[in-house]
Protein backbone atom coordinates (compact mmCIF):
# COMPACT_ATOMS: atom_id res chain seq x y z
CA UNK A 1 0.00 0.00 0.00
CA UNK A 2 1.24 3.49 -0.80
CA UNK A 3 1.95 5.55 2.28
CA UNK A 4 0.60 9.04 2.12
CA UNK A 5 2.89 12.01 2.70
CA UNK A 6 1.59 12.53 6.21
CA UNK A 7 2.60 8.96 7.14
CA UNK A 8 6.08 9.56 5.76
CA UNK A 9 6.40 12.71 7.87
CA UNK A 10 5.05 10.88 10.96
CA UNK A 11 7.53 8.03 10.50
CA UNK A 12 10.36 10.54 10.31
CA UNK A 13 9.19 12.65 13.23
CA UNK A 14 8.62 9.60 15.45
CA UNK A 15 12.14 8.45 14.67
CA UNK A 16 13.51 11.88 15.56
CA UNK A 17 11.64 11.86 18.89
CA UNK A 18 12.44 8.25 19.83
CA UNK A 19 16.12 8.69 19.05
CA UNK A 20 16.22 11.80 21.25
CA UNK A 21 17.10 14.16 18.38
CA UNK A 22 14.17 16.55 18.59
CA UNK A 23 16.05 19.35 20.34
CA UNK A 24 19.00 19.01 18.02
CA UNK A 25 16.66 19.15 15.01
CA UNK A 26 14.92 22.23 16.43
CA UNK A 27 18.31 23.92 16.92
CA UNK A 28 19.39 22.91 13.41
CA UNK A 29 16.23 24.39 11.93
CA UNK A 30 16.67 27.64 13.89
CA UNK A 31 20.20 27.98 12.56
CA UNK A 32 19.02 27.87 8.94
CA UNK A 33 18.97 31.29 7.29
CA UNK A 34 16.97 30.40 4.16
CA UNK A 35 14.09 28.11 3.24
CA UNK A 36 16.38 26.13 0.93
CA UNK A 37 18.63 25.42 3.93
CA UNK A 38 15.65 24.20 5.98
CA UNK A 39 14.65 21.79 3.23
CA UNK A 40 18.23 20.50 2.76
CA UNK A 41 18.60 20.08 6.51
CA UNK A 42 15.36 18.05 6.76
CA UNK A 43 16.46 15.94 3.81
CA UNK A 44 19.76 15.13 5.49
CA UNK A 45 18.01 14.23 8.75
CA UNK A 46 15.58 12.00 6.86
CA UNK A 47 18.28 10.26 4.82
CA UNK A 48 20.34 9.61 7.97
CA UNK A 49 17.45 8.34 10.05
CA UNK A 50 15.01 6.44 7.85
CA UNK A 51 16.96 5.65 4.74
CA UNK A 52 15.37 6.68 1.44
CA UNK A 53 11.95 7.96 2.49
CA UNK A 54 11.38 9.88 -0.73
CA UNK A 55 11.79 7.02 -3.19
CA UNK A 56 8.03 6.40 -3.21
CA UNK A 57 8.49 3.16 -5.13
CA UNK A 58 4.91 2.05 -4.53
CA UNK A 59 3.38 4.91 -6.47
CA UNK A 60 1.41 3.67 -9.42
CA UNK A 61 1.58 6.65 -11.75
CA UNK A 62 -1.34 7.10 -14.10
CA UNK A 63 -2.47 5.72 -17.42
CA UNK A 64 -5.65 4.87 -19.27
CA UNK A 65 -7.07 1.57 -18.10
CA UNK A 66 -9.57 -0.20 -20.33
CA UNK A 67 -10.48 -2.89 -17.78
CA UNK A 68 -11.31 -0.32 -15.12
CA UNK A 69 -13.19 1.77 -17.70
CA UNK A 70 -15.41 -1.22 -18.50
CA UNK A 71 -15.96 -1.86 -14.78
CA UNK A 72 -17.09 1.74 -14.27
CA UNK A 73 -19.37 1.51 -17.28
CA UNK A 74 -21.01 -1.58 -15.78
CA UNK A 75 -21.56 0.26 -12.50
CA UNK A 76 -23.11 3.09 -14.51
CA UNK A 77 -25.40 0.61 -16.25
CA UNK A 78 -26.63 -0.65 -12.87
CA UNK A 79 -27.56 2.89 -11.84
CA UNK A 80 -29.20 3.50 -15.23
CA UNK A 81 -31.42 0.40 -14.96
CA UNK A 82 -35.14 1.33 -15.39
CA UNK A 83 -35.89 0.02 -11.91
CA UNK A 84 -33.12 2.11 -10.32
CA UNK A 85 -33.09 5.30 -12.41
CA UNK A 86 -30.25 6.93 -10.48
CA UNK A 87 -29.23 8.84 -13.57
CA UNK A 88 -26.89 11.36 -12.01
CA UNK A 89 -24.94 8.59 -10.29
CA UNK A 90 -24.90 6.70 -13.60
CA UNK A 91 -23.37 9.77 -15.23
CA UNK A 92 -20.58 9.91 -12.61
CA UNK A 93 -19.65 6.30 -13.46
CA UNK A 94 -19.88 6.87 -17.21
CA UNK A 95 -17.67 9.94 -16.83
CA UNK A 96 -15.12 7.93 -14.90
CA UNK A 97 -15.28 5.33 -17.65
CA UNK A 98 -14.71 8.09 -20.24
CA UNK A 99 -11.73 9.43 -18.26
CA UNK A 100 -10.21 5.93 -18.00
CA UNK A 101 -10.69 4.96 -21.67
CA UNK A 102 -8.00 5.26 -24.31
CA UNK A 103 -8.54 8.06 -26.82
CA UNK A 104 -10.33 6.71 -29.91
CA UNK A 105 -11.20 3.39 -28.27
CA UNK A 106 -14.43 1.42 -28.45
CA UNK A 107 -14.67 1.63 -24.66
CA UNK A 108 -14.65 5.42 -24.88
CA UNK A 109 -17.27 5.39 -27.62
CA UNK A 110 -19.59 3.11 -25.65
CA UNK A 111 -19.26 5.28 -22.53
CA UNK A 112 -20.24 8.34 -24.59
CA UNK A 113 -23.14 6.41 -26.12
CA UNK A 114 -24.34 5.35 -22.67
CA UNK A 115 -24.08 8.91 -21.47
CA UNK A 116 -26.21 9.94 -24.44
CA UNK A 117 -28.88 7.49 -23.28
CA UNK A 118 -28.95 9.19 -19.87
CA UNK A 119 -29.16 12.63 -21.50
CA UNK A 120 -32.14 11.39 -23.48
CA UNK A 121 -33.96 10.25 -20.33
CA UNK A 122 -33.15 13.59 -18.70
CA UNK A 123 -34.63 15.38 -21.75
CA UNK A 124 -31.30 17.06 -22.46
CA UNK A 125 -31.52 16.50 -26.19
CA UNK A 126 -28.78 18.91 -27.27
CA UNK A 127 -26.36 17.25 -24.85
CA UNK A 128 -27.57 13.88 -26.07
CA UNK A 129 -26.68 14.81 -29.66
CA UNK A 130 -23.24 15.96 -28.54
CA UNK A 131 -22.62 12.60 -26.86
CA UNK A 132 -23.82 10.73 -29.94
CA UNK A 133 -21.34 12.73 -32.04
CA UNK A 134 -18.53 11.91 -29.58
CA UNK A 135 -19.45 8.21 -29.65
CA UNK A 136 -19.34 8.21 -33.47
CA UNK A 137 -16.03 10.09 -33.55
CA UNK A 138 -14.51 7.29 -31.50
CA UNK A 139 -14.77 3.60 -32.39
CA UNK A 140 -18.43 2.86 -31.76
CA UNK A 141 -19.20 -0.74 -32.87
CA UNK A 142 -20.58 -0.69 -36.42
CA UNK A 143 -23.28 -3.26 -35.64
CA UNK A 144 -24.71 -1.03 -32.91
CA UNK A 145 -24.65 2.24 -34.85
CA UNK A 146 -28.38 1.89 -35.55
CA UNK A 147 -29.01 2.57 -31.82
CA UNK A 148 -27.28 5.93 -32.06
CA UNK A 149 -29.07 6.72 -35.32
CA UNK A 150 -32.45 6.02 -33.73
CA UNK A 151 -31.62 8.04 -30.62
CA UNK A 152 -30.46 10.90 -32.80
CA UNK A 153 -33.72 10.87 -34.76
CA UNK A 154 -35.72 10.86 -31.54
CA UNK A 155 -33.71 13.77 -30.16
CA UNK A 156 -34.18 15.86 -33.26
CA UNK A 157 -37.89 15.13 -33.15
CA UNK A 158 -38.13 16.13 -29.47
CA UNK A 159 -36.15 19.28 -30.08
CA UNK A 160 -38.48 20.18 -32.93
CA UNK A 161 -41.44 19.61 -30.60
CA UNK A 162 -39.70 21.78 -28.02
CA UNK A 163 -40.08 19.06 -25.39
CA UNK A 164 -36.92 19.82 -23.49
CA UNK A 165 -35.87 21.20 -20.19
CA UNK A 166 -35.43 24.92 -20.13
CA UNK A 167 -34.11 26.90 -17.24
CA UNK A 168 -36.85 28.80 -15.50
CA UNK A 169 -36.00 32.49 -15.46
CA UNK A 170 -35.97 32.36 -11.67
CA UNK A 171 -33.40 29.54 -11.62
CA UNK A 172 -30.74 31.77 -13.09
CA UNK A 173 -28.57 33.37 -10.41
CA UNK A 174 -28.20 37.14 -10.53
CA UNK A 175 -24.96 39.10 -10.53
CA UNK A 176 -24.29 41.06 -7.35
CA UNK A 177 -22.80 44.54 -7.35
CA UNK A 178 -20.48 46.22 -4.87
CA UNK A 179 -22.59 48.29 -2.48
CA UNK A 180 -20.28 51.32 -2.64
CA UNK A 181 -18.17 53.00 -5.30
CA UNK A 182 -15.30 50.76 -6.42
CA UNK A 183 -11.77 51.75 -5.48
CA UNK A 184 -10.36 53.34 -8.69
CA UNK A 185 -7.19 51.22 -8.49
CA UNK A 186 -8.84 48.09 -7.10
CA UNK A 187 -12.19 47.99 -8.89
CA UNK A 188 -13.06 44.66 -7.30
CA UNK A 189 -13.35 46.21 -3.82
CA UNK A 190 -15.31 49.14 -2.43
CA UNK A 191 -13.39 52.37 -1.99
CA UNK A 192 -14.20 52.44 1.74
CA UNK A 193 -11.78 49.59 2.51
CA UNK A 194 -8.27 50.31 3.72
CA UNK A 195 -5.38 48.08 4.71
CA UNK A 196 -3.78 48.57 8.13
CA UNK A 197 -1.10 46.72 10.04
CA UNK A 198 -0.14 46.38 13.67
CA UNK A 199 1.62 44.01 16.05
CA UNK A 200 -1.50 42.28 17.33
CA UNK A 201 -3.27 41.65 14.00
CA UNK A 202 -0.59 41.84 11.31
CA UNK A 203 -2.27 43.20 8.15
CA UNK A 204 -6.02 43.68 8.25
CA UNK A 205 -8.89 45.50 6.52
CA UNK A 206 -10.88 48.38 8.01
CA UNK A 207 -13.73 50.49 6.65
CA UNK A 208 -13.62 54.28 6.51
CA UNK A 209 -17.42 54.49 6.47
CA UNK A 210 -20.22 52.79 8.38
CA UNK A 211 -21.16 49.48 6.76
CA UNK A 212 -24.53 47.78 7.10
CA UNK A 213 -25.62 44.17 7.06
CA UNK A 214 -26.28 43.23 3.44
CA UNK A 215 -23.41 45.28 1.98
CA UNK A 216 -21.16 43.57 -0.54
CA UNK A 217 -17.69 45.07 -0.35
CA UNK A 218 -15.35 42.69 -2.21
CA UNK A 219 -15.68 40.48 -5.28
CA UNK A 220 -12.42 38.71 -5.97
CA UNK A 221 -11.13 36.27 -8.60
CA UNK A 222 -8.73 33.57 -7.38
CA UNK A 223 -5.14 33.58 -8.63
CA UNK A 224 -5.08 29.78 -8.46
CA UNK A 225 -7.82 27.29 -7.69
CA UNK A 226 -8.33 23.58 -7.24
CA UNK A 227 -11.30 21.27 -7.70
CA UNK A 228 -11.67 18.72 -4.87
CA UNK A 229 -10.91 15.24 -6.16
CA UNK A 230 -14.31 13.77 -5.29
CA UNK A 231 -15.91 16.14 -7.87
CA UNK A 232 -13.49 15.23 -10.66
CA UNK A 233 -16.04 13.24 -12.66
CA UNK A 234 -18.85 15.78 -12.17
CA UNK A 235 -17.28 19.22 -12.60
CA UNK A 236 -14.91 20.94 -14.98
CA UNK A 237 -11.41 20.91 -13.53
CA UNK A 238 -10.78 24.44 -14.77
CA UNK A 239 -13.98 26.49 -14.31
CA UNK A 240 -15.59 24.02 -11.83
CA UNK A 241 -18.93 24.17 -13.62
CA UNK A 242 -21.06 21.04 -13.09
CA UNK A 243 -21.57 20.31 -16.79
CA UNK A 244 -21.54 16.60 -16.02
CA UNK A 245 -23.50 15.54 -19.11
CA UNK A 246 -20.87 16.74 -21.55
CA UNK A 247 -17.50 16.63 -19.76
CA UNK A 248 -14.54 15.68 -21.95
CA UNK A 249 -11.47 13.88 -20.58
CA UNK A 250 -7.82 14.83 -20.53
CA UNK A 251 -6.26 12.63 -23.22
CA UNK A 252 -3.43 11.55 -20.91
CA UNK A 253 -4.40 11.42 -17.26
CA UNK A 254 -7.49 9.72 -15.81
CA UNK A 255 -8.50 12.22 -13.13
CA UNK A 256 -9.20 15.43 -15.03
CA UNK A 257 -12.21 16.40 -17.12
CA UNK A 258 -13.27 19.65 -18.74
CA UNK A 259 -16.54 21.25 -19.79
CA UNK A 260 -15.06 22.45 -23.11
CA UNK A 261 -11.90 22.46 -25.19
CA UNK A 262 -11.57 26.11 -24.20
CA UNK A 263 -11.28 25.19 -20.50
CA UNK A 264 -9.04 22.28 -21.42
CA UNK A 265 -6.61 24.65 -23.19
CA UNK A 266 -6.73 27.16 -20.36
CA UNK A 267 -6.01 24.44 -17.79
CA UNK A 268 -3.16 23.17 -19.98
CA UNK A 269 -1.73 26.68 -20.22
CA UNK A 270 -1.95 27.41 -16.50
CA UNK A 271 -1.24 24.21 -14.53
CA UNK A 272 -2.16 20.94 -16.21
CA UNK A 273 0.82 20.88 -18.59
CA UNK A 274 3.05 20.31 -15.56
CA UNK A 275 0.62 18.43 -13.32
CA UNK A 276 -0.91 15.98 -15.83
CA UNK A 277 1.49 13.07 -15.29
CA UNK A 278 1.67 13.41 -11.49
CA UNK A 279 -1.71 14.71 -10.34
CA UNK A 280 -3.18 11.27 -9.66
CA UNK A 281 -0.25 10.29 -7.43
CA UNK A 282 -0.29 13.71 -5.80
CA UNK A 283 -3.99 13.26 -5.00
CA UNK A 284 -3.24 9.98 -3.30
CA UNK A 285 -0.38 11.49 -1.28
CA UNK A 286 -1.70 14.87 -0.20
CA UNK A 287 -4.74 16.62 1.24
CA UNK A 288 -6.37 19.43 -0.71
CA UNK A 289 -4.56 22.08 1.35
CA UNK A 290 -1.19 20.79 0.20
CA UNK A 291 -2.44 20.14 -3.35
CA UNK A 292 -3.31 23.83 -3.33
CA UNK A 293 0.38 24.58 -2.62
CA UNK A 294 1.22 22.54 -5.73
CA UNK A 295 -1.44 24.33 -7.80
CA UNK A 296 -0.25 27.77 -6.71
CA UNK A 297 3.32 26.83 -7.61
CA UNK A 298 2.44 25.41 -11.05
CA UNK A 299 0.26 28.45 -11.75
CA UNK A 300 3.16 30.72 -10.78
CA UNK A 301 5.50 28.82 -13.14
CA UNK A 302 3.10 29.18 -16.09
CA UNK A 303 2.56 32.86 -15.23
CA UNK A 304 6.27 33.30 -15.97
CA UNK A 305 5.98 31.30 -19.20
CA UNK A 306 8.00 28.44 -17.69
CA UNK A 307 11.00 30.76 -17.49
CA UNK A 308 12.32 29.65 -14.10
CA UNK A 309 15.17 32.14 -14.09
CA UNK A 310 12.74 35.03 -14.57
CA UNK A 311 10.48 33.64 -11.81
CA UNK A 312 13.47 33.27 -9.48
CA UNK A 313 14.65 36.83 -10.09
CA UNK A 314 11.09 38.12 -9.68
CA UNK A 315 10.63 36.32 -6.36
CA UNK A 316 14.00 37.59 -5.15
CA UNK A 317 13.02 41.16 -6.02
CA UNK A 318 9.77 41.10 -4.00
CA UNK A 319 10.03 43.30 -0.93
CA UNK A 320 7.86 41.21 1.38
CA UNK A 321 7.72 43.79 4.14
CA UNK A 322 6.40 46.65 2.05
CA UNK A 323 4.43 45.03 -0.79
CA UNK A 324 0.67 44.69 -0.37
CA UNK A 325 -2.22 44.41 -2.82
CA UNK A 326 -3.30 48.01 -2.15
CA UNK A 327 -0.03 49.30 -3.59
CA UNK A 328 -0.79 47.92 -7.03
CA UNK A 329 -3.03 49.26 -9.75
CA UNK A 330 -5.37 46.34 -10.53
CA UNK A 331 -6.93 48.06 -13.55
CA UNK A 332 -3.90 47.13 -15.64
CA UNK A 333 -2.11 44.62 -13.46
CA UNK A 334 -0.26 41.73 -15.07
CA UNK A 335 -0.50 38.23 -13.65
CA UNK A 336 3.17 38.32 -12.52
CA UNK A 337 2.30 41.14 -10.12
CA UNK A 338 -0.80 39.23 -8.98
CA UNK A 339 1.51 36.35 -8.12
CA UNK A 340 3.59 38.73 -5.99
CA UNK A 341 0.49 39.40 -3.85
CA UNK A 342 0.06 35.65 -3.33
CA UNK A 343 3.76 35.15 -2.64
CA UNK A 344 3.61 37.61 0.26
CA UNK A 345 0.67 36.01 2.07
CA UNK A 346 1.22 35.10 5.71
CA UNK A 347 3.28 31.94 6.26
CA UNK A 348 3.53 32.25 10.07
CA UNK A 349 6.89 30.52 9.62
CA UNK A 350 8.54 32.02 12.69
CA UNK A 351 5.65 30.74 14.83
CA UNK A 352 5.75 27.19 13.51
CA UNK A 353 7.17 24.38 15.62
CA UNK A 354 10.12 22.22 14.53
CA UNK A 355 7.78 19.30 13.76
CA UNK A 356 5.57 21.55 11.63
CA UNK A 357 8.57 22.79 9.62
CA UNK A 358 9.78 19.21 9.19
CA UNK A 359 6.31 18.21 7.98
CA UNK A 360 6.10 20.97 5.37
CA UNK A 361 9.69 20.34 4.24
CA UNK A 362 8.84 16.64 3.77
CA UNK A 363 5.84 17.64 1.64
CA UNK A 364 7.94 20.03 -0.46
CA UNK A 365 10.61 17.35 -0.99
CA UNK A 366 8.09 14.67 -2.03
CA UNK A 367 6.22 17.01 -4.39
CA UNK A 368 9.39 18.34 -5.98
CA UNK A 369 10.87 14.83 -6.42
CA UNK A 370 7.74 13.71 -8.25
CA UNK A 371 7.81 16.83 -10.41
CA UNK A 372 11.52 16.52 -11.25
CA UNK A 373 11.21 12.80 -12.09
CA UNK A 374 8.01 12.79 -14.07
CA UNK A 375 7.36 16.20 -15.60
CA UNK A 376 9.07 18.70 -17.88
CA UNK A 377 10.33 20.45 -14.73
CA UNK A 378 13.00 17.72 -14.68
CA UNK A 379 14.43 19.22 -17.88
CA UNK A 380 13.57 22.84 -17.12
CA UNK A 381 15.44 22.71 -13.81
CA UNK A 382 18.96 22.57 -15.16
CA UNK A 383 20.84 23.96 -12.15
CA UNK A 384 20.75 23.91 -8.36
CA UNK A 385 19.11 27.31 -8.21
CA UNK A 386 16.08 26.23 -10.21
CA UNK A 387 15.70 23.04 -8.13
CA UNK A 388 15.86 25.17 -5.00
CA UNK A 389 13.32 27.58 -6.45
CA UNK A 390 10.73 24.84 -7.00
CA UNK A 391 11.31 23.29 -3.55
CA UNK A 392 11.14 26.61 -1.75
CA UNK A 393 7.99 27.73 -3.57
CA UNK A 394 6.30 24.44 -2.65
CA UNK A 395 7.51 24.83 0.94
CA UNK A 396 6.27 28.45 1.12
CA UNK A 397 2.86 27.64 -0.30
CA UNK A 398 2.55 24.58 1.94
CA UNK A 399 2.55 27.26 4.66
CA UNK A 400 0.46 29.99 2.97
CA UNK A 401 -2.26 27.53 1.84
CA UNK A 402 -3.56 26.41 5.23
CA UNK A 403 -3.48 29.99 6.51
CA UNK A 404 -4.99 31.84 3.57
CA UNK A 405 -6.86 29.69 1.08
CA UNK A 406 -10.62 29.97 0.87
CA UNK A 407 -13.21 27.43 -0.11
CA UNK A 408 -15.08 27.57 -3.38
CA UNK A 409 -18.64 26.44 -2.70
CA UNK A 410 -21.82 25.69 -4.50
CA UNK A 411 -25.35 24.84 -3.43
CA UNK A 412 -25.92 21.15 -3.87
CA UNK A 413 -29.44 19.78 -4.20
CA UNK A 414 -29.78 17.24 -1.37
CA UNK A 415 -33.48 16.31 -1.18
CA UNK A 416 -32.86 13.26 1.00
CA UNK A 417 -31.11 15.23 3.73
CA UNK A 418 -32.43 17.68 6.34
CA UNK A 419 -31.69 20.64 4.14
CA UNK A 420 -32.90 20.44 0.56
CA UNK A 421 -29.93 22.51 -0.50
CA UNK A 422 -26.65 22.39 1.32
CA UNK A 423 -23.34 24.11 0.73
CA UNK A 424 -20.90 21.75 -0.86
CA UNK A 425 -17.19 22.32 -1.05
CA UNK A 426 -16.15 22.35 -4.70
CA UNK A 427 -12.58 23.29 -4.08
CA UNK A 428 -10.42 26.13 -2.93
CA UNK A 429 -8.59 29.15 -4.22
CA UNK A 430 -5.95 31.74 -3.35
CA UNK A 431 -7.23 35.32 -3.01
CA UNK A 432 -4.93 38.32 -2.40
CA UNK A 433 -7.45 40.72 -0.80
CA UNK A 434 -9.72 38.27 1.03
CA UNK A 435 -6.53 36.88 2.59
CA UNK A 436 -5.98 40.21 4.32
CA UNK A 437 -9.11 39.72 6.46
CA UNK A 438 -8.57 38.52 10.02
CA UNK A 439 -10.68 36.11 11.98
CA UNK A 440 -13.32 36.57 14.67
CA UNK A 441 -15.45 33.87 16.29
CA UNK A 442 -18.32 36.37 15.98
CA UNK A 443 -17.49 37.66 12.49
CA UNK A 444 -19.11 40.60 10.72
CA UNK A 445 -18.98 39.15 7.23
CA UNK A 446 -19.44 35.90 5.34
CA UNK A 447 -17.97 34.73 2.06
CA UNK A 448 -20.03 33.42 -0.80
CA UNK A 449 -18.97 31.89 -4.14
CA UNK A 450 -20.54 33.18 -7.35
CA UNK A 451 -21.21 30.99 -10.38
CA UNK A 452 -18.12 32.43 -12.14
CA UNK A 453 -15.87 31.22 -9.28
CA UNK A 454 -15.37 34.69 -7.80
CA UNK A 455 -15.86 35.02 -4.06
CA UNK A 456 -17.69 37.95 -2.48
CA UNK A 457 -17.53 39.33 1.06
CA UNK A 458 -21.00 40.05 2.42
CA UNK A 459 -21.37 42.12 5.61
CA UNK A 460 -23.72 40.40 8.09
CA UNK A 461 -23.31 42.68 11.12
CA UNK A 462 -23.05 46.46 10.96
CA UNK A 463 -19.45 47.74 11.10
CA UNK A 464 -18.74 51.25 12.37
CA UNK A 465 -16.45 53.63 10.47
CA UNK A 466 -12.87 52.70 11.47
CA UNK A 467 -13.96 49.17 12.44
CA UNK A 468 -12.14 46.02 11.33
CA UNK A 469 -13.66 43.52 8.90
CA UNK A 470 -13.71 40.04 10.40
CA UNK A 471 -14.15 36.78 8.58
CA UNK A 472 -14.63 33.38 10.21
CA UNK A 473 -11.98 30.72 9.62
CA UNK A 474 -14.27 27.82 10.53
CA UNK A 475 -14.40 28.40 14.29
CA UNK A 476 -17.69 30.15 15.12
CA UNK A 477 -18.89 30.66 18.68
CA UNK A 478 -22.32 29.29 17.70
CA UNK A 479 -20.80 25.96 16.70
CA UNK A 480 -17.67 25.43 18.78
CA UNK A 481 -16.71 25.86 22.43
CA UNK A 482 -14.14 28.41 23.51
CA UNK A 483 -11.49 25.70 24.09
CA UNK A 484 -12.08 24.07 20.72
CA UNK A 485 -11.81 27.44 18.97
CA UNK A 486 -8.72 28.58 20.81
CA UNK A 487 -6.80 25.38 20.22
CA UNK A 488 -7.97 24.99 16.60
CA UNK A 489 -6.98 28.56 15.71
CA UNK A 490 -3.65 28.28 17.48
CA UNK A 491 -2.88 24.99 15.73
CA UNK A 492 -3.80 26.02 12.19
CA UNK A 493 -3.43 29.81 12.23
CA UNK A 494 -0.81 30.34 14.95
CA UNK A 495 -2.65 33.01 16.97
CA UNK A 496 -4.50 33.25 20.28
CA UNK A 497 -7.92 34.58 19.45
CA UNK A 498 -8.99 37.55 21.55
CA UNK A 499 -12.18 38.39 19.71
CA UNK A 500 -15.28 39.59 21.56
CA UNK A 501 -16.72 36.05 21.54
CA UNK A 502 -13.57 34.64 23.17
CA UNK A 503 -13.19 37.47 25.67
CA UNK A 504 -16.84 37.38 26.71
CA UNK A 505 -17.27 33.63 26.23
CA UNK A 506 -20.30 33.87 23.94
CA UNK A 507 -22.60 30.83 24.14
CA UNK A 508 -23.11 28.11 21.57
CA UNK A 509 -26.18 28.53 19.32
CA UNK A 510 -28.27 26.12 21.41
CA UNK A 511 -27.65 28.22 24.55
CA UNK A 512 -28.17 31.67 23.04
CA UNK A 513 -30.53 33.99 24.93
CA UNK A 514 -33.53 35.50 23.14
CA UNK A 515 -33.50 39.13 22.01
CA UNK A 516 -35.79 41.66 23.63
CA UNK A 517 -37.96 43.39 21.07
CA UNK A 518 -40.25 46.36 21.51
CA UNK A 519 -43.87 45.18 21.09
CA UNK A 520 -44.05 46.82 17.63
CA UNK A 521 -41.35 44.51 16.19
CA UNK A 522 -42.56 41.38 14.46
CA UNK A 523 -40.35 38.28 15.06
CA UNK A 524 -38.16 38.05 11.97
CA UNK A 525 -38.27 34.29 11.45
CA UNK A 526 -41.46 33.00 9.94
CA UNK A 527 -41.37 29.22 9.62
CA UNK A 528 -43.45 29.07 6.42
CA UNK A 529 -41.02 31.45 4.82
CA UNK A 530 -38.09 29.43 6.11
CA UNK A 531 -39.60 26.39 4.39
CA UNK A 532 -39.80 28.35 1.17
CA UNK A 533 -36.17 29.41 1.55
CA UNK A 534 -35.28 25.76 2.13
CA UNK A 535 -36.90 25.12 -1.29
CA UNK A 536 -34.73 27.90 -2.74
CA UNK A 537 -37.65 30.11 -3.58
CA UNK A 538 -36.21 33.16 -5.33
CA UNK A 539 -39.22 35.45 -4.75
CA UNK A 540 -39.15 34.80 -0.99
CA UNK A 541 -35.40 35.38 -0.88
CA UNK A 542 -35.67 38.70 -2.71
CA UNK A 543 -38.47 39.84 -0.42
CA UNK A 544 -36.77 38.80 2.81
CA UNK A 545 -33.32 40.29 2.14
CA UNK A 546 -34.21 43.94 3.02
CA UNK A 547 -36.28 42.81 6.00
CA UNK A 548 -33.46 40.66 7.42
CA UNK A 549 -30.87 43.40 6.81
CA UNK A 550 -33.03 45.96 8.66
CA UNK A 551 -33.36 43.56 11.57
CA UNK A 552 -29.62 42.84 11.76
CA UNK A 553 -28.76 46.54 11.62
CA UNK A 554 -31.30 47.40 14.31
CA UNK A 555 -30.59 44.69 16.87
CA UNK A 556 -26.83 44.16 16.63
CA UNK A 557 -26.37 45.89 19.99
CA UNK A 558 -28.08 42.85 21.57
CA UNK A 559 -25.61 40.39 19.96
CA UNK A 560 -25.25 37.52 20.78
CA UNK A 561 -28.79 36.23 20.70
CA UNK A 562 -30.82 33.53 19.03
CA UNK A 563 -32.77 35.84 16.72
CA UNK A 564 -29.77 37.70 15.30
CA UNK A 565 -27.84 34.47 14.66
CA UNK A 566 -30.89 32.86 13.02
CA UNK A 567 -31.44 35.89 10.81
CA UNK A 568 -27.75 35.91 9.83
CA UNK A 569 -28.14 32.31 8.67
CA UNK A 570 -31.37 33.10 6.86
CA UNK A 571 -29.82 36.15 5.18
CA UNK A 572 -26.90 34.09 3.91
CA UNK A 573 -29.37 31.53 2.55
CA UNK A 574 -31.26 34.32 0.74
CA UNK A 575 -28.04 35.58 -0.86
CA UNK A 576 -27.10 32.03 -1.83
CA UNK A 577 -30.47 31.57 -3.51
CA UNK A 578 -30.13 34.84 -5.40
CA UNK A 579 -26.43 34.86 -6.28
CA UNK A 580 -24.77 31.46 -5.75
CA UNK A 581 -24.14 28.63 -8.09
CA UNK A 582 -26.67 25.86 -7.73
CA UNK A 583 -26.35 22.25 -8.63
CA UNK A 584 -27.65 21.35 -12.06
CA UNK A 585 -28.98 18.14 -10.49
CA UNK A 586 -32.15 19.87 -9.30
CA UNK A 587 -33.34 20.10 -12.91
CA UNK A 588 -33.73 16.33 -12.94
CA UNK A 589 -35.59 15.88 -9.67
CA UNK A 590 -38.81 14.77 -11.37
CA UNK A 591 -37.10 12.57 -13.94
CA UNK A 592 -35.01 10.29 -11.76
CA UNK A 593 -34.06 9.23 -8.29
CA UNK A 594 -31.36 11.54 -6.92
C1 LIG B 1 -5.50 35.08 6.26
S1 LIG B 1 -4.26 35.79 7.21
C2 LIG B 1 -4.96 37.34 7.61
C3 LIG B 1 -4.03 38.47 7.29
C4 LIG B 1 -2.81 38.53 8.18
N1 LIG B 1 -3.09 39.31 9.34
C5 LIG B 1 -1.62 39.05 7.43
O1 LIG B 1 -0.94 39.93 7.93
O2 LIG B 1 -1.34 38.53 6.34
C6 LIG B 1 -4.41 34.82 8.64
C7 LIG B 1 -3.37 35.12 9.69
O3 LIG B 1 -3.63 36.40 10.27
C8 LIG B 1 -3.44 36.39 11.67
N2 LIG B 1 -4.75 36.60 12.31
C9 LIG B 1 -5.97 36.38 11.80
N3 LIG B 1 -6.94 36.73 12.65
C10 LIG B 1 -6.33 37.19 13.74
C11 LIG B 1 -6.80 37.71 14.97
N4 LIG B 1 -8.09 37.81 15.25
N5 LIG B 1 -5.88 38.10 15.87
C12 LIG B 1 -4.56 37.99 15.61
N6 LIG B 1 -4.05 37.52 14.47
C13 LIG B 1 -4.92 37.12 13.53
C14 LIG B 1 -2.90 35.01 12.00
O4 LIG B 1 -1.51 35.04 11.94
C15 LIG B 1 -3.43 34.17 10.87
O5 LIG B 1 -2.66 33.02 10.65
From TrEMBL:
Signal peptide: none annotated. The keyword Zinc-finger applies. CDD domains: SET_SMYD4. Residues 191-474 form the SET domain. It holds the Pfam family zf-MYND. Keywords: Metal-binding, Zinc, Zinc-finger. Protein-lysine N-methyltransferase. Monomethylates PRMT5, modulating its transcriptional activity. May also act as a histone methyltransferase. Plays a critical role in cardiac development. Acts as a key epigenetic regulator of gene expression during cardiac development via its dual activities as a methyltransferase and negative regulator of HDAC1. This is Protein-lysine N-methyltransferase SMYD4. It comes from Aedes albopictus.
Amino acid sequence: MVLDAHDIYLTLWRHIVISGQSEEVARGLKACTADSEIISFVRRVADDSIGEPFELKELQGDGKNEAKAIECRKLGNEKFHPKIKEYVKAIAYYNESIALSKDGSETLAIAYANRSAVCYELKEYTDCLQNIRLARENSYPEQLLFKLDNREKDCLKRLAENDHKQLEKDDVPRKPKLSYKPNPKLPHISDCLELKEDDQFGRYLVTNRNLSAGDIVIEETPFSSLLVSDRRYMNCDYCHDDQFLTLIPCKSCTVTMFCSTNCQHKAMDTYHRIECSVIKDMQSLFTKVILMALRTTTTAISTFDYNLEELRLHVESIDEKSLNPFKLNWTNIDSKQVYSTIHILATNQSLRSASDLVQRSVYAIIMSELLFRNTELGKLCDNNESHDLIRTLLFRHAQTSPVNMHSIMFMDYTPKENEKYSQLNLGCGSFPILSMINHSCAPNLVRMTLPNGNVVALVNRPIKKGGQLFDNYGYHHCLESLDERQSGLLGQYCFRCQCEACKLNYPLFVNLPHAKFPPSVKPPIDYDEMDRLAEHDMATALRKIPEYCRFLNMFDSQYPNYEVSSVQEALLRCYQIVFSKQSRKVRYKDLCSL
